[in-house]
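Collaborator request, handled under Task 6.
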Amino acid sequence: MMLPDSIQRLFYRYHTDRLDTDRHAALIIPTVLSDGTVDDWEWLFQVYGWETIQAWIGKPGHASMLPPPMERLWTLILLGIPQETPRWAGGNARRTVPEDALPGWFPNDLR
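Structure tokens returned to the collaborator:
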């Protein structure tokens, strides 16, 4: 499934017409959890379901992809325990970005 127009604004760095909810979940989930609104979160949970998002945030390193306040919020909501990875402890991990979602001007050596 392609992203609805209402969500595409969150992915201004990517080719939103190429993002697919099945193939690009590893990019979509943290972006919407980090930057979305309540309406965006509602869409996210409708598409992926509670269990999928809960499993995603429970994997090592995934919660630390979110900004600290959002990491604390979503780990509290989804795992029942608020956590915040100290930024000096390897937190704020880089997101995995699918190559087909990057714009054409993005340098090849950084892909």
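The cover message to the collaborator said: "The longest helix spans residues 38-58. The radius of gyration is 14 Å. Please let us know whether this matches your experimental observations."
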